[in-house]
Each structure stands twice: as C-alpha cells, then as structure tokens.
Design goal:
By secondary structure, the protein is α/β, with parallel strands linked by helices. It has 9 helices and 6 strands. The protein has helices spanning 4-7, 11-26, 39-42, 46-58, 67-74, 90-103, 151-165, 169-183, 196-203; strands at 2-3, 32-34, 62-64, 109-119, 122-131, 134-144.
Length: 211
C-alpha cells in the first residue's frame, strides 16, 4: 500500500514510492494507492508529482481518493469538492470513477469516501466503490465526529483488511466505512485497536461500548 502523502513529501520519497511500485509489479504483488492530495506538498511541483502519481496509478490494482484527489492528482474531471446535498452528487462521483477506470486500466477496484460537513462535530459519511463492473454504495449516514483527521486513512485500512480477509466486496465497503468512523472518534489521526466485532457494531449502528 502506498500513500500519496509520502509520495509527495519530497522528490526523494516520490522516487522511492515509484520504485516500490515498480518492484511490487515486477514480483506480481497487488498494489493499492491512496492518492491523498495535499496542496502544500504539491506547490510548485505539480508537473513532477503528476508524472509520478500517474505512473504509480497506472500499475496499481486498487485506487482510492476523494473527488479532490482524483481531479488534482490525476487530472480527471469530477464533481465540485465539498458542499451540501452530497447524496444528490453520487451519480457525479460514479461518472468520475468511470473516467478514472478508462484512464487507468490496470486497476480493478476504485473507491472514494463521501463526506458532507453539517458542523464541526456532525458529518454525513458514506462511500462508493467500483469493483470490476459492480458498484457498491454506502449512502451517507450521520456520524458524530470528535476529530475528522484520519477518517480517510481509517476507511482505507478497513477496506484493505476486508480484501485481505477474502470477504465479499460489499463487506469491504461496510468495514471500511466503520473503521473510518472509528478513527473520527479519536483525538488523533489514527484509531485505537478494535476487534472485528466492535467494528461491525459500529456499522450496525450500536453506540453501546462493549466491555
């Protein structure tokens, strides 16, 4: 798994991530790439990073990013970032992912999170994934947020966990959605350890703490 944060951190880390991806491809390893655009890292380096990100994406099997990531990292047109009425934009997200699929034909899984900020502590949180030719959608659901940082990384971690466990694709999405929610309940950008039962209880809407 490669993160766009690390790839964009410096010219050296960008080349390092690219070499990792090339070596992984050479040895038939499955590659996932979370684009993770950050404007401060990309400033005055757009051409350099676009070239690196495009090559990594071109040999990746799993691509993850939000509407801003796909547009700014890969140059793929998509819906306006942020804003209200997220549920009404789902078709726009699907169209964007369809364009990514046409440009990056090696990948078979494309996923994006959906977030609408109601206020600092209340968000609508959902996700969309295209696996092969099959769409999987978690409609945005209200969640209570303590610290939003890390929700996307939590989603990716849960998604990859489901893939490695050999679950059905629908469960990848559900588990990723729940681990993303879990991360936003912590005052850090990572989630505390939780077992599968605890994560599934979040998906099922159980707010009770199991001790």
């Amino acid at each position: 798994h490669l993160s766009g944060l690390i790839a964009a951190l410096s010219p050296e880390t960008g080349q390092f991530c690219l070499e990792l991806a090339r070596m992984a491809q050479k040895h038939d390893c499955r590659i996932s790439f979370d684009l993770n655009y950050r404007a401060s890292f990309w400033k005055n380096r757009e051409n350099e990073l676009r070239e690196i990100f495009s090559e990594i994406a071109g040999i990746s099997d799993i691509l993850v990013g939000n509407e801003e990531d796909f547009q700014l990292c890969l140059g793929v047109a998509g819906p306006e970032a942020g804003g209200k009425d997220l549920a009404a934009k789902i078709d726009g997200f699907k169209e964007m992912i369809g364009r990514v699929k046409k440009s990056y034909k090696n990948a078979t899984v494309f996923a994006t999170t959906l977030r609408e900020v109601v206020d600092a502590n209340h968000h609508l949180w959902g996700a969309i994934m295209l696996e092969g030719d099959n769409w999987h959608v978690v409609e945005p659901r209200p969640v209570t947020v303590l610290d939003r940082i890390g929700g996307g990384d939590g989603f990716v971690g849960g998604l990859l966990y489901g893939i490695l466990k050999g679950w059905a694709p629908e469960k990848w999405m559900q588990f990723g959605w729940a681990t993303g929610v879990l991360a936003t309940t912590m005052l850090t950008d990572y989630a505390q350890p939780a077992d599968e039962e605890q994560v599934w209880s979040i998906w099922e809407g159980n707010a009770r703490v199991k001790r």
